[in-house]
Amino acid sequence: MKRISIVILLLVIGNLWGISTAKSVFYADSYMLRAEGIEANYWNPAKLSSETGVDLWFPFANFTASLSNNALDIDTYNYFVSQDSLSAADKQHILRNLQTSLRGEMNTHISLFGMNFGNQAFSSTLNLSGKTSISKNVTDMIFYGLAEEEYKFGLNDTNLSGLGYIDFTFGMGDIDIPYIPENWPQIKVGASASLLAGLFGTDIIQYDGIIRNTLSEGASMQQDVVLRTGVGGGGLKAMFGMYSEIFDGFEAGLTVDNIVGFINWRVMTVDHTVSVTADELYAANLDEDYLTVEIEQEKIKPFSTKIPTDLRLALLYKTKYATVSTDWVHGLKTSAVTDKWGRISFGASLLPFEFLPISFGIAPGNSKSPLKTSYGIGVSSESVDFGVALQTYNSLFPNKKTRGLTYGGHLSFHF
Which of 143-157, 207-221, 226-240, 332-346 has the highest mean pLDDT? Predict the structure, then answer.
């Protein structure tokens, strides 16, 4: 098996998938209070302001691309495929990174069109998201064989979910909250609402698995999976946002996203049931047909995919030549587009020249997701805003220890 070149793999990954809106990649998603114009429609509609003029998005001019996992990097892959056998230390090198499962993510966000006019905006984007996780028990069995008498599997550590939709979003912001004392900082609010055209949705809704190993009866296995899929549907979601400039250059904000978020699937709705069984399995009879596989497909009534609510808090400090920010986000549930654990990120930008913004972002890793670092550069003027950014996972710079990559590019015009 050939080794993978870091350059080739990163170029391939960079063009497969995407995440968030384009400019958020520049700051490792510490972007809620930085978003202006059309992008505020998706980050904090309270930031939609008549002072920013008119912005235009053209089709496919703003996009990102991302693919990541929590354990495997290029250096590890190249090392293992070059070995004839693996030592106990080699196996532990992989297993200690898995926690409870091997997880991967891929997402996309591509602008279709957008325009803001005063404190209002209308936009549309294509969004594709996918997540998968495989139980650590699987890699334990691959490395050590059936060392335990029993292995159990369930949705806590094994899952698959995907979601694709196009949004049509209208937002309004820059609205002052009345009756605030004059000596208090003014609080501005805004909201956006999205009509969602569902493309596809898939999720494992049931998974029960067990593998037993005894000397008297050999190995036995029972795996039952129900995968629910939907194609073609419609839905809604909304966002509420607020922010305040507490003192000159220092802002604080809050958003609640995916309010009443759902997509109802109606065109094609199917449950796919897969059952795999094996009894009295010994090494001596592995060349026989020892597996029984049953696959059933059942058309079901229309169903809805819930898009769980996200809460985000942010701070931003601005000076003439630099800005710094931090965002914290927490989803109520885990889904194809949200996580039920909190995540924090930090962003900074420098303006060595007024037309040349340079950005940096970092999101510290945790047991559920790897470290993310971002670098971006752009060109900004009164009429055009252009930039490109690169984000790496599990490394400060793109290298052989990188476990994923995000590429972002944005282009907008101002009037």
Answer: 226-240
Range with the largest mean pLDDT of 50-59, 291-300, 313-322, 330-339: 313-322
pLDDT at res. 69: 83
- Domains of the chain from N-terminus onward: 6-414 (2.40.160)
Q: What is the DSSP letter of 287?
A: T
Q: Which of 193, 197, 275 is nearest to 230 (CA)?
A: 197
Q: Euclidean distance between the first and final Cα of the chain, in Å?
A: 54
Per residue in 347-394, pLDDT tens?
Answer: 999 998 888 999 999 999 776 677 899 999 999 988 899 999 999 998
Residue 4 token pair: 């993978």
- Alpha helices for 16-113 (secondary structure H): 40-43, 74-81, 88-95
**66's tokens:** 């991302």
Distance CA 185, CA 183 (A): 7
* Pairing relationship of beta strands 150-153 and 322-331 according to DSSP bridges: unpaired
CA–CA distances in Å: residue 293 to residues 87, 205, 225, 274, 280: 34, 19, 12, 7, 16
Give the C-alpha distances (Å, rounded to integers) separating 131 from 67, 125, 331.
10, 20, 15
pTM (predicted TM-score): 0.84
* Cβ–Cβ under 8 Å, residues 327 and 313: yes
Longest dimension (CA), the chain: 84
